Amino acid sequence: MKKNAEIIGIASDTLDFILEASKSTYPDEFAGLLEAKDGIITDILLLPGTESSESNAVLKLFMMPNISAVGSVHSHPSSVVRPSQADLHMFSKTGTHHIIVGHPYGRNNWKCYDGSGQPIKLEVLDVEFEDEELL
Fold this sequence. Notes:
Layout: E1 9-11, H1 12-25, E2 31-37, E3 40-45, E4 51-52, E5 57-58, E6 71-76, H2 85-91, E7 97-102, E8 110-113, E9 119-120, E10 123-125
Parallel strand pairs: 1-3, 1-10, 6-7
Antiparallel strand pairs: 2-3, 2-6, 4-5, 7-8, 8-9
């Protein structure tokens, strides 16, 4: 997918994965990068060496493979889903769509932001995934 292609939504299963991963790392933060196909966020890239604690998650961007991330995702162990100054700094390096999920990590506990930290609407879409053949 081209980096500048318009993002129209996130796959429902992908959002569920984000929420479950956030629950499983609680009280530490969960973090990853977002990938999209045909304008729909479908994949979460987990970078090796990511450090997580109760107060932050540090992505080792130098570990990113040669892909075009469309944004980032991370959790806040609190219910606050507003970006911090550190979040805004990361947003500026990792694409155009950034999801923050907050405790208790339900379908109503997340928001998407643009690179400057302004809220943007991101539709949750029911998408059928095709099984990719393993080579």
